[in-house]
Amino acid sequence: MKNKQILLAARPLGAVSESNFSLVETGIPRAGDGEFVVRNHFLSLDPYMRGRMDEAKSYAASAAVGAVMVGTTVGEVIESKHPKFKAGDFVETRSGWQLYGISNGGGARRVDPAFVPLSAYLGAVGMPGVTAWIGLNEHGRPKPGETVVVSAASGAVGGTVGQLAKLKGCRVVGIAGGRAKCDYVFNQLGFDACVDYKAGNLDADLKAACDKGIDVYFDNVGGPVLDAVLGHMNAFSRIALCGLISGYDNADALTVHNFRSFLVNRINLRGFICSDHIELWKPALAELGQLVHDGKIKYRESIAEGLENAPAAFIGLLKGKNFGKQLVKLV
Ligand SMILES: NC(=O)c1ccc[n+]([C@@H]2O[C@H](COP(=O)([O-])OP(=O)(O)OC[C@H]3O[C@@H](n4cnc5c(N)ncnc54)[C@H](OP(=O)(O)O)[C@@H]3O)[C@@H](O)[C@H]2O)c1
């Protein structure tokens, strides 16, 4: 038996391609004192990984060329010399893009697949869910009856944002790419409306869906979608700026023209990173876990089969080919 790893082979120039990655085989790691070895079942693919592939200054260090691609996994402990983790435990670790990982317990979380499905700990009951919870509660701060708009609404973060806002008694409008995603957001996730930004009438469709204007915008995409939303923000509204995926391959695509809206509407825009608020993770995960367990938060997954298909799935994620949380199944 061998371990397989995907390395960052070269930094992308513009759009990511498969040549930016390489697949290698190595031995399976053995646990030293204070360590455990985990066989990963699912790898999470997340938009932030695009930023790690670049050398540009950011809130986190770049991935090194030649190193295993960074990423979070869930799996089963197969060998342990760690006092708090034993063989058979299910854990979330920052193993990276590989079949087997080794951990000293730092950043590891024991999870219970009998409470919610194992893969959910990488989505609604993991980092994307916490991001939704923090951005909405800390920065959006919606009141019952207010209108909350969220982009990338069928995705891991956006789908959770909208459902949390519905539970708070808000009117919730999603923005997503294509009819199928919008139908899912409206019919399955229970949003009040969902606007297809690819249909060509974004401004008019937003106006129709948000007849009382927008009080909170949870932005996952930036660029032309943000520009259109700015035209419908209410006075003293809030924007939780979570992500800018429309510009991850090309920052020039993020130009905003409707800047005047910030002044005339006295908009409070707050950029945030989920790791800024470590103290909120425990209460957020407890609430999200219960909501998913009770069926009050639903989610959808796009699952690629096999580590060798991770690069293609990641490239697809950056182009909106995923439909729900993007995972790679490893066993
Ligand atoms: N601040 C933080 O701490 C934090 C933490 C986690 C995630 N994030 C950010 O949150 C956002 C969503 O992440 P996620 O994990 O939930 O991913 P996701 O929504 O599951 O997948 C990404 C989605 O982005 C949309 N997209 C791609 N290119 C686009 C474009 N040019 N214009 C508009 N939409 C585009 C696609 O949906 P459509 O088909 O609907 O376009 C795609 O499915 C990302 O920007 C990510 O970087 C931030």
Describe this structure in words.
The chain is of the alpha/beta class and 331 residues long. It folds into two domains: 3-123 and 299-329, Medium-chain alcohol dehydrogenases, catalytic domain (Quinone Oxidoreductase, Chain A, domain 1); 127-275, NAD(P)-binding Rossmann-like Domain (Rossmann fold, 3-Layer(aba) Sandwich). The chain is built from nine helices and 15 strands. It has helices at 48-52, 127-140, 156-167, 179-187, 202-209, 223-230, 260-264, 281-293, 310-318; strands at residues 3-8, 21-26, 36-44, 73-80, 90-93, 100-103, 109-111, 147-151, 171-176, 193-196, 214-219, 233-241, 268-271, 301-305, 325-329. The strands form three sheets. Strands 3, 4, 5, 6, 7, 14 and 15 form a seven-stranded mixed beta sheet that branches. A six-stranded parallel beta sheet has the order 10-9-8-11-12-13, with helices on both faces. Helix 6 (223-230) links the parallel strand 11 and strand 12 (233-241). The longest helix is centred in the middle third of the chain and has 14 residues, at 127-140. It is globular. The relative contact order is 0.16. The mean pLDDT is 97. The site of NADP nicotinamide-adenine-dinucleotide phosphate has 28 residues, from helix 2 and helix 3.
Number of E strands: 15
Overall spatial form: globular
Q: The biggest beta sheet, please?
A: 7 strands, mixed
Give the oligomeric state of the chains in this entry, treating copies of one chain as homo and distinct chains as hetero: single chain
At the third CATH level, what is the topology name of the largest domain? Quinone Oxidoreductase, Chain A, domain 1
CATH arch. level architecture of the largest domain: Alpha-Beta Complex
Low-confidence stretches: none
Radius of gyration: 20 Å
Order of helices and strands: EEEHEEEEHEHEHEHEHEHEHEHE
Using the coordinates above, name the CATH class of the largest domain.
Alpha Beta
Distance between the termini: 13 Å
Report the bound ligands by name, code or SMILES: NADP nicotinamide-adenine-dinucleotide phosphate
Instruction: Determine the number of helices (DSSP H or I, runs of at least 4 residues).
Output: 9
Mean pLDDT: 97
Which percent range fits the helix content?
A: 25-40%
Q: How much strand?
A: 25-35%
Coarse structural class: alpha/beta
- The domain tally reads 2
